[in-house]
Amino acid sequence: MKRIIVLFLLGSLAIFTACENEQTSDKIVAGFGVGTYEEQFREGIVPILEEQGYEVEIKVFSQNMQVNPAMAEGAIDVSIFQSTAYMEAINEELGINMTALTYSPSAPQSLHSVRHDSLDAVEDGSTIALPNDPVNQERAVRILEELGWVTIADDAGTVDFNLSSVSAGDYDLEFVVLDPAQILVSLEDVDFGIINGNYIADAGMRIADGLAIEDTPDEHRIIVSILEEDLDEEWAQDLKAAIESPEFEAYMTSQTKYDGFILPGSQDAQ
After folding, report:
1. The pTM is what?
2. pLDDT tens digit string along 250-263?
């Protein structure tokens, strides 16, 4: 009788251990900077994944530059905050191998002003606030190039972009370089500012109300980043399906503040 009880207990322990391991493998840890992308994921994606049995943990980092090192250290499984261009530069810098799982909803940059209500107000000497990081700065200046306000050298880079590649177009402008998060709150100090769309949404404004809106190139759209070795994992494919699902699209279109965002649809960022 004692032997039967021992065998029963050992069998129960094995089943418990297997269940515990299975539960652990169904956990997804997602990393974000502060703001819009985390909110979209928490409200629109997490319910879909939880319905499929996943446990989802969200880690929010105070600075975007902290997210990719966390991926390299294995502290997070997935991140949503960066573009393909930025990710490829970080892969080289950190010696890791992240890849794009799919697109996330992406917020185009847009040009705004509190001093002027029209692009016609631009003139020589107008001050334009630009992001201080190379990737977002290059995006911003491309908007000015599209307007004809500046010209950009053919050999201007992306991840190594700097303003030495920019010369006057129709106007001789003055640039004020700021942290991307500071441009919106600094609009009263400049004539125009080019703002990343996630900050517009966070402020309860609409990208669609900008005086000029970026035609966002694919390499600057926000992607869902994972390690390449995880690309075929079941959890990764389930996450991809959730982000591209009609349910998530319905959530996005129901939120007025996301007007102007580029939605993932069924496109694949790979």
Report:
1. 0.76
2. 999 999 888 889 99
